[in-house]
Amino acid sequence: MKRFFTVVVIFILALAWGVSAPAGGTQKEAKAMVEKASAFYKTHGKEDTLKELSNPKGQFIKGDL
Q1: CB-based contact 24:30 (threshold 8 Å)
Q2: What is the residue extent of each domain of the chain?
Q3: 15 with 54: CB under 8 angstroms?
Q4: HSE (CB half, 13 Å, CA atoms) of 27?
Q5: Are 37 and 53 in contact, with CB atoms under 8 Å apart?
Q6: CA distance 3 to 47
Q7: CA distance 21 to 5
């Protein structure tokens, strides 16, 4: 479980940092998104978290993040 969470965090951060600053989200917004994903994972578990992270209209999509 810990390894899965680490992979999810790295994935979200990589997406956030891969975007240029002027057009994309900030590091602060990326960190908030990771914290939100962590809370979602703790509440809903692995399977639902993966579904939500993969959902293009889900709560973890914000602009370029």
Answers
A1: no
A2: 2-54
A3: no
A4: 0
A5: yes
A6: 14
A7: 26
To 5 degrees, how large is the angle CA 64–CA 34–CA 12? 50
User: What digits encode the pLDDT tens for the residues 3-43?
Assistant: 887 877 777 777 766 654 456 788 899 899 989 999 999 99
- Residue 63, helix vs strand vs coil: coil
String of DSSP letters for 4-48 = HHHHHHHHHHHHHHTS-TTTS--HHHHHHHHHHHHHHHHHHHHHH
Question: CA triplet 22, 25, 27: central angle to 5 degrees?
Answer: 105
Orientation of helix 2-17 relative to helix 27-54, angle to 10°: 120
Which residue did the predictor score with more confidence, 16 or 65? 65
Closest CA to 37 of 51, 26, 27: 51
